[in-house]
């Protein structure tokens, strides 16, 4: 009975999927009534039907800009995650390195992305995507570093003693004990970092750099009064974020199940 009390009851699968869909449809109905029926919406808030029409009609150019933004976010996510994993491994292995990295990581965590983005875009030139990718990498670094470092410190002393008694090398202990224990934490960090990388890549496109990307298009069409097309690009940005979130959530679920089965 105590075990049953300690467990949290999860809602059924149909409710987990159906509830967000119902809430989304309800929001769309309210939006349509507000804009098309009551006619009380401001000029920059078009009907969802007009947004959907623009999204379909302009799909070719929207998809091209979505590809640019998604690639910038993906490169930033990969580079930021690799750097975070490497530094977290060093911090977990060597206490002096941990002490040196702590203030640096704290400083990176409070970097104002909005302020540093124009500097990076100017620094690397108007035709380079590097500034945008660097912003996405900075945003992805912190959640991966914090989660991986926490995961690397989760091994139990009794397990480490068992490997030591079996004359296992440090490499064998890392591969067979430390890494599997840290894997679910890594996946959680990647899930959080994926959304941050997409948002940061979108925000970076507002502040200079090349004339492509979803963020640049939203700013351009909003300023020119083409509200429906600007919102269609917003829909494109949402789809990129959802794709990153779903892929990393799937990886996290697979890693968690494997860890639970060991």
UniProtKB/TrEMBL annotation:
Pfam family, one: BPD_transp_1
Membrane-related topology note: Multi-pass membrane protein
Subcellular location: Cell membrane
Domain ABC transmembrane type-1: 62-252
Annotated transmembrane regions: 12-34, 73-94, 101-124, 130-149, 185-208, 228-251
InterPro entries registered for this protein in UniProt: MetI-like (IPR000515), MetI-like_sf (IPR035906)
Gene Ontology molecular-function annotations: ATP binding
Gene3D superfamilies per the UniProt record, alphabetical: MetI-like
Chief location category: membrane
Keyword vocabulary terms for this entry: ATP-binding, Cell membrane, Membrane, Nucleotide-binding, Transmembrane, Transmembrane helix, Transport
Family: Belongs to the binding-protein-dependent transport system permease family.
The protein's name in its UniProt record: ABC transporter ATP-binding protein
Organism of origin: Microbacterium terricola
């Amino acid at each position: 009975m105590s075990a049953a009390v300690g467990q949290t009851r999860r809602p059924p699968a149909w409710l987990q999927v159906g509830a967000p869909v119902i809430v989304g449809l309800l929001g769309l109905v309210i939006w349509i009534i507000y804009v098309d029926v009551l006619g009380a919406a401001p000029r920059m808030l078009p009907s969802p039907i007009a947004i959907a029409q623009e999204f379909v009609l302009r799909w070719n150019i929207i998809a091209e800009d979505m590809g640019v933004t998604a690639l910038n976010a993906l490169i930033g996510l990969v580079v930021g995650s690799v750097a975070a994993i490497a530094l977290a491994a060093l911090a977990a292995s060597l206490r002096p390195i941990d002490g040196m990295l702590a203030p640096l990581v704290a400083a990176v965590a409070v970097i104002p992305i909005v302020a540093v983005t124009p500097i990076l875009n100017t620094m690397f030139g108007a035709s380079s995507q590097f500034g945008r990718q660097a912003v996405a990498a900075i945003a992805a670094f912190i959640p991966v570093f914090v989660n991986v470092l926490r995961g690397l410190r989760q091994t139990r002393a009794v397990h480490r003693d068992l490997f030591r008694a079996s004359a296992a090398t440090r490499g064998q202990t890392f591969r067979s004990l430390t890494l599997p224990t840290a894997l679910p934490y890594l996946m959680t960090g990647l899930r959080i970092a994926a959304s941050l990388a997409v948002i940061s890549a979108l925000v970076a496109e507002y502040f200079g750099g090349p004339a492509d990307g979803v963020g640049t298009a939203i700013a351009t069409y909003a300023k020119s009064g083409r509200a429906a097309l600007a919102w269609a690009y917003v829909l494109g940005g949402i789809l990129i974020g959802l794709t990153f979130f779903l892929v990393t959530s799937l990886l996290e679920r697979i890693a968690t199940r494997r860890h639970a089965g060991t």
